[in-house]
Every structure is written in C-alpha cells, then in structure tokens.
Amino acid sequence: MRRQALILSTLIAAAMSDSAFAADSSLQQSLKRLDASTRMIQVCDLAVMEKTSSPKQGVTDRAFIDMLSRPKIHGDVVVGHGGAFRREGEWYEFSFRCAVTPDHMRVTKLSVSRIRHVPHSEWAAKNFYP
To answer: Shortest CA distance to 112 belongs to which of 87, 88, 129?
Structure first.
C-alpha cells in the first residue's frame, strides 16, 4: 500500500500547479480508487505540500503525514506527530491535524506545527532520500 501511495504522490506532485490538483479529473479518479483511509492520507499529504510551499521558502515536492509514525484517524480527522516533507532538497519533520470532507476527497482544515529541519546526519536512520 505504501508503494501505491508513493506512486500516487509522485503523480500528484507532477500535476500540481497553483492547486490545479483539485480540478484535475484524472487525479480525482485516481483518488476515488483508493480505500477511504489511504485517500484521506493522500489528500492530507497534498494539502501539506501546498501549505509548506511558498515563493519565499521554496516548493515542497514530497510530503508524507505518515513518514515517521502512523497517524491516528478519528472519523474525518487525522492527527499525527510523524510527518515529513521535503522542500528545496531538505527534509523537515512536523506534527499536524487534518480534517477532510466525509468522502475524504478534500481537506477542510489543516494545521501543521512543530516544523523541524532534519540534519543530513539523521536521514539514513529515517529513510529519507536526497
């Protein structure tokens, strides 16, 4: 399942431009083929990518809310402390709370906190890649 999620994240990253992913019907169809929990994770991954990207700080090209630990799902809300994203070639850990619509297709509220830059010396132990 993790491999399928990684492939989908890669496709999503390639399709993203100014929130274009929300309107991309092929992406929507791909998301609908996932089970509800996996879809929720993927939609939250996308929202983190968008939220942590900016012209000033750079583009986030990878985000995984479940990279370092399994998040807790409570209905339409997922919460965790083991997220990681890659921006401009550097990895960052974060905590989050992500609420989604009942069909798990869109994020309704996202908070990302405790963002910490991960030194290169920790990458191998955390399975981060350049």
So the answer is: 87
C-beta separation of 79 from 72 below 8 A? yes
Q: Is 82 exposed, middle or buried (0-12, 13-18, 19+ CB in 10 A)?
A: middle
Residues in Cβ contact with 109 at an 8 Å cutoff, skipping those fewer than 6 apart:
97, 98, 99
Reported pTM: 0.81
Q: Where are the domains of the chain?
A: 2-126
The model's pLDDT over 11-60, given as tens digits with 9 standing for 90+, comes to 444 444 444 444 478 888 999 999 999 999 999 999 999 999 999 999 99
DSSP assigned state of 87: E
